[in-house]
Design brief:
Two copies of one chain form a homodimer. With 286 residues, chain A is mainly alpha-helical. The first copy, chain A, has one domain: Orthogonal Bundle (Farnesyl Diphosphate Synthase), CATH 1.10.600.10. Chain A is built from 15 helices and two strands. In chain A, strands 1-2 form a two-stranded antiparallel ribbon. The two termini of chain A are 21 Å apart.
Chain lengths: 286, 286
């Protein structure tokens, strides 16, 4: 079921990203977007839409736009002036293949390309629904969302900050916000009521926290081969993480609790259960 | 008249860009957007709207969004991995003040913030007009517009390319596209017919070429004090420009011709005449 979604998303990402002149730009954009991955965010958008009785075809442009936005954050995150990472998903980072200048511009291009896909291909949605989806997109993708989280994350490095509220802010915006965007747009496209919208938003908030804690745990316990990217970097850069603030045991305990709470909220969905179990397996909880 | 527009634009840019947490991010975004400038693109958007009997208040969010987008291109252009420029409009570049990481993220944030302003504040426009404005915005701002021009521009450096069609592509996309976006959205918001839309698009295409040739001429003949940024860089980086391809005399001649043709197209507008004469004065044509 999960794999069906992933195939659908990959097929549509390919379709939306035709290579035209200047080819280097489009190849660079496609390179990171199409790296093999779990496509968690688009899958969660589509599955929320299905759960709430919507047509997943209507949510496809938005689901794919969110994956493009996610890829954009990876391209710019890996730049030498940011995390300076040479590998991503087991392959050389975008700037190692296309050079820094093109990588910066490919990331910039994706930030405009993603909402353009929503406007261009959401042909079954009426204008006011498209504008509602775009408002959600802009809110969670920009300075009030993901980027706010990234800025606070960067500023917390090498400062030995031990502040729970700062950590919450980083997790909520850097990680939960894209999951919230995914489920909220899926729900809106399905025509969900405010109750369902709230329920899914709370789910995504907790799922995001769990996902980030799992990411921090994996950064410490995994090898390069397992993750496809440089590991152990949080420690070196003295990053504020759940593991650095509370220790590994407490992090694992918190993760298990959060994932169980998430599971209770969406037990009716086999796909969400699969996603939750996947995280449990990778972090040694199952 | 021109100055009235500039004041209005500055007032609204201030209003739209309230500083919230994390303050560094919003300060960095505001820093480059609010640097004193001629606000050519928003002024052209507003004046086109007025000429075609629209209400300039309706065009204000779009006009300001285009200025934010323009500022974003300046922030990322000045980065060490791009043009590596330490000054902009006589002040230290964004990354010299806020560091490279925040400058990258502030540019990223503006790319989402700009269209968000259009959706959030265009309260007098109906949904389908807003979507039409956004479609124009995405088309000219992204991989099919400005960024395509930037990529080809970068790739032309140090390669001694002498190709007129490549130069045309760079000028059209890197420079004309934002002017086209400005006048087209101004016209659409005014409810213009296809005839007027075509006329203004042609005007903006030629104006953009003239503007870029003037920029290339000024890069060679001006001092740092006059331009507020490093000059003579096109030569050092062996950039493909109208001056490098045809020589200074031919560039000035072409510029004069283009500006006269532009003037013929919009003689009824005092503001556009003022803009054209300003370029003539700065390049020694008047």
């Amino acid at each position: 079921m999960m794999n069906n979604y992933i195939d659908l998303v990959n097929k549509n990402l390919e379709k939306y990203m035709e290579i035209v002149y200047p080819e280097d730009l489009f190849k660079s954009m496609r390179y990171t977007v199409l790296l093999p991955g779990k496509r968690l965010r688009p899958v969660m958008c589509l599955e929320t839409c299905r759960m709430l009785k919507g047509d997943i075809e209507d949510a496809m442009p938005t689901a794919c736009a969110i994956e493009m936005l996610h890829a954009q954050t990876l391209i710019h995150d890996d730049l030498p002036c940011m995390d300076n990472d040479d590998f991503r998903r087991g392959k050389p980072s975008n700037h190692k293949v296309f050079g820094e200048a093109v990588a910066v511009l490919a990331g910039d291009a994706l930030l405009t390309f993603a909402p353009q896909i929503i406007v261009k291909y959401s042909t079954n949605l009426d204008s006011s629904t498209i504008l509602r989806v775009l408002s959600e997109y802009f809110n969670f993708a920009g300075a009030y969302g993901v980027i706010a989280g990234q800025v606070v994350d960067i500023e917390s490095e090498h400062k030995n900050i031990r502040d729970n509220s700062v950590l919450d802010f980083i997790h909520t915006h850097k990680t939960s916000d894209l999951f919230k965007l995914s489920v909220r747009t899926g729900a809106i496209i399905a025509g969900a009521d405010d109750n369902d919208l709230d329920k899914m938003t709370q789910f995504a908030q907790q799922f995001g926290l769990a996902f980030q804690i799992a990411d921090d745990i994996l950064d410490e316990i995994s090898t390069f081969e397992e993750l496809g990217k440089t590991t152990g970097k949080d420690k070196t850069s003295e990053k504020l993480t759940y593991v650095s603030l509370y220790g590994m045991d407490s992090a694992k305990c918190k993760l298990a609790c959060l994932l169980d709470e998430c599971y209770d909220k969406i037990q009716e969905s086999q796909v969400f259960a699969e996603i939750i179990n996947g995280i449990k397996k990778r972090t040694g909880l199952l």
